[in-house]
Amino acid sequence: MSMDLSGRAALVTGASSGFGEAVALGLAKAGAKVALAARREDRLRDLAARIQAAGGEAHVIVADFTQEDQAQRAVREAEAAFGRLDILINNAGVMYLEPVATADLARWRSMLELNLLGLIAATQAALPGMTARKDGHIVNIASTAAHVANPMAAAYSATKFGVAGFSEALRKEVHKDNIRVSVISPGMAATELRDHIAVPAVQSAVNKSAAAMRQLTAEDVADAILYTVSRPPHVMINEILMRSTDQER
After folding, report:
1. pTM of the predicted model, to two decimals?
2. How far apart are the first and last CA of the chain?
3. Which superfamily does CATH assign the domain made up of 9-239 to?
4. What does the pLDDT read at residue 2?
């Protein structure tokens, strides 16, 4: 199975850890030029150094994807660095879990801005170049929470259901321009995502559940993304829904 992405230019959001870091390494190994975007510059610099030491090409972009203008600037900077943008991996996100009755709405608003609106802004900025070239691939990271809504995850599921709905509507708008749109929906994974949970009792319960199963790794999810973006141009993987074998919900 070919994973050759030589000559392709990619932007990975949320590249400082987890899925983003793993897929950036995988893209570079497959030959793609990779723009790394996130807020934590030190981690991005370290990742870029590792990619470059292995013979790859990486460009660091410090951006806060809760801010529409910064999300769009990141895309423009990636295009300027590489002359084009072929692959956009919209991965930046947080997971704030808490009961609806006592939820911190400011926290939920920031999650909505990052998980959904930042993704939309980056996508919007990438479309003109992809449309002009009649070539491009947008991969949006959702979650099993885009399919199953559980207690404490009302707003998180709302953002991820939103990602799934946005992606399907976008696919129908841009397929005529040879732009592919894919959704990757992982289940419980061993990443920093659970560290965002601000309610100790909820965080403890989720961590206990995670510890009882063989969780997905960031590399597992990166492999799914790499498979998706390396298919022949006539093949569009609409969605990959993946869980640990031990995960019920």
Report:
1. 0.95
2. 31
3. NAD(P)-binding Rossmann-like Domain (3.40.50.720)
4. 62
